[in-house]
Amino acid sequence: MSRSNRERTEQTRQALIDAGRRLFVEKGYAETATPEIVMAAGVTRGALYHHFEDKKALFRAVTECEARAVAAAIEARSASYDAPRAMLIAGASAYFDAMRAEGRTRLLLIEAPAVLGPLASAAIDAENAEATLRAGLAAMLPEAGAMLEPLTSLLSAAFDRAAIAIESGAERQYYEQTIAVLLDGLAEQLRR
């Protein structure tokens, strides 16, 4: 495939992902029809099915893009810190900032588990934001050992619940303070 064909193919795929995201945010997965997606993307129905098996596959691609964007934001913010605790605190703040993108909390935390299933949704998270959390916890809490995976899973769920609460109007600063207290408490307990 020539470079221009590859570029056109990628542009078409990205147009479908962008249109899908807009409509999934605006209407929700269930209320979004494939004809609306292709019209919004300015492509044919055949182009949709060339790139994605079905609407669910497109939704998965949208979810993966959103999850990568969140992970990239966390990594970018936390990379400027050397101390593991500071990295985790900066990463937490970056996570909450990233989740403020319009519709992102709904897409990743409400629709994705419902549409893709909890295991597929968790796998996407495990490759993205949860992976950065795991690395940060491993650096801050080297004593965690076999508890690293359960700690990562539990804290990831706490971050998700916090993002939903913040999206609903809860005070973000209290969640960020609580995360710091939680991390410090874990560190103290594991060092005993």
The average pLDDT value, as a whole number, equals: 94
Structural class: mainly alpha
Number of contiguous helices: 10
Number of strands: 0
- How large a portion of the residues is in β-strands, by DSSP E? under 5%
Radius of gyration (CA) equals: 19 Å
Portion in helices? over 70%
> Which term fits the overall shape?
elongated
Helix-strand pattern: HHHHHHHHHH
Low-confidence stretches: none
N- and C-termini, Cα separation: 60 Å
Description:
By secondary structure, the protein is an all-alpha fold. It has two domains: 1-52, Arc Repressor Mutant, subunit A (Orthogonal Bundle), CATH 1.10.10.60; 55-191. It has ten helices and no strands. The model has no long low-confidence stretch (mean pLDDT 94).
What is this structure's SSE topology?
Elements: H1 3-27, H2 34-41, H3 45-51, H4 55-78, H5 84-98, H6 104-116, H7 118-126, H8 129-140, H9 148-167, H10 172-190
Helix pairs in contact: 1-2, 1-4, 4-5, 4-6, 4-8, 5-8, 5-10, 6-7, 8-9
Key features?
192 residues, mainly alpha, Arc Repressor Mutant, subunit A, 2 domains, 10 helices, HTH-type_TetR-like_transc_reg, AcrR family transcriptional regulator, transcription, transcription cis-regulatory region binding
In short:
With 192 residues, this protein is mostly helical. The chain folds into 2 domains: 1-52, Orthogonal Bundle (Arc Repressor Mutant, subunit A), CATH 1.10.10.60; 55-191. Helices cover 79% and strands 0% of the residues.
